[in-house]
Design a protein that fits this description.
The protein has 310 residues and is of the alpha+beta class. It has two domains: 6-126, Vaccinia Virus protein VP39 (Rossmann fold, 3-Layer(aba) Sandwich); 163-309, Hnrnp arginine n-methyltransferase1 (Distorted Sandwich). Helix content is 25%, strand content 35%.
Length: 310
């Protein structure tokens, strides 16, 4: 990890929260994002559908500057905000080498403090992590909206993405690694089927975010989810679907899904078709994965309790 460190009052060294989270994702992760074809094509399509020549565009957390480049190639003037000095340097280099320096201004600043110098037509922000964990997408956009309205008043710009949908799923997950059993968090490519994963339920939606409106920054679930198939319930899977752009006239949209995230439950249980499985969790956006898992409770199905009592 390419983290800078600081020395606190107790003379110990540790990364700060800002360096670990949100706006300080390490440089090599951003290079991997450039290789994510689905992400690149989806955001390019959404930006091309919403950005026209002469528009003013802001990107919050520009990373390598690639999403800003899509807007600039549509004829927009772009202000790209980036807090990580390594990424500021890298994005300026890439933007210059692509001949876009006249259209894109990279500003070294905390995106939560940034106030545009002019009214804005479109805001791009991709600090998206599955379940809105770890990164600061919701905090950054909420701060921008407050700063923007104080400076310019309504209306707000259009946001890319426009919405995010958070869902959870009961699964049976294979945690056998060449004979070594290790129930660990697993990131998966978003796909219809995944080797080693057996879906016990359909995804259940527990959160909706519409970026142009007020939205929650805390999420919680306390309910029973129906197992639609028989199996061993030993993990939950988080799935986050992002609606990047909606065309109301055509009735179409551009979407992109985060990686799926599998999290093991502490006490696996066998479930039968149609059994109701109590699931409970609560977390804040930007929390680390362990903060989510500490608050996760997956109780035995009600029918299993009845059988034990009998």
């Amino acid at each position: 990890m390419n983290f800078k460190i600081f020395r606190g009052d107790d003379n110990t060294q540790s990364p700060t929260d800002e360096q670990l989270l949100g706006q300080f994702i390490p440089l090599h992760y951003h290079f991997q994002m450039l290789q994510d074809a689905d992400r690149m094509k989806s955001f390019k399509s959404a930006i091309e559908a919403n950005v026209t020549p002469g528009m003013n565009v802001v990107e919050l957390g520009c990373g390598t500057g690639v999403l800003s480049s899509f807007a600039a190639r549509c004829g927009a003037k772009v202000q790209s905000i980036e807090r990580n000095p390594e990424l500021v340097s890298a994005s300026r280099k890439f933007i210059d080498s692509n001949g876009l320096s006249d259209s894109i201004e990279v500003i070294h600043e905390d995106a939560t403090c940034y106030i545009p110098t002019r009214p804005v037509d479109v805001v791009i922000c991709e600090m998206l992590h599955v379940g809105m964990l770890r990164e600061k997408q919701l905090q950054v956009i909420a701060a921008f909206k407050e700063n923007y309205l104080n400076a310019f008043g309504p209306p707000l710009p259009r946001f890319i993405p426009e919405a995010s949908l958070l869902t959870i799923q009961l699964i049976q997950q294979n945690f056998d690694f060449e004979g070594y059993i290790a129930p660990i968090p697993i990131f998966q490519a978003p796909a219809a089927t995944t080797a080693g994963t057996y879906e016990l339920s359909s995804p259940f939606r527990y959160g909706e975010i519409l970026y142009s409106d007020d939205y929650p920054q805390q999420f919680a679930l306390d309910r029973k989810i129906r197992a639609e198939r028989e199996g061993t319930f030993n993990a939950i899977r988080l799935l986050t679907h992002n609606i990047l752009s909606i065309d109301d006239h055509m009735g179409t949209f551009v979407s992109w899904a985060n990686q799926f995230l599998v999290l093991p439950v502490e006490n696996p249980v066998a479930v039968s078709t149609n059994e109701m499985v109590p699931i409970k969790f609560a977390y804040r956006s930007g929390d680390e994965l362990d903060a989510f898992t500490r608050g996760l409770s997956a109780a035995e199905p009600m029918t299993r309790r009845v059988r034990k009592a009998a």
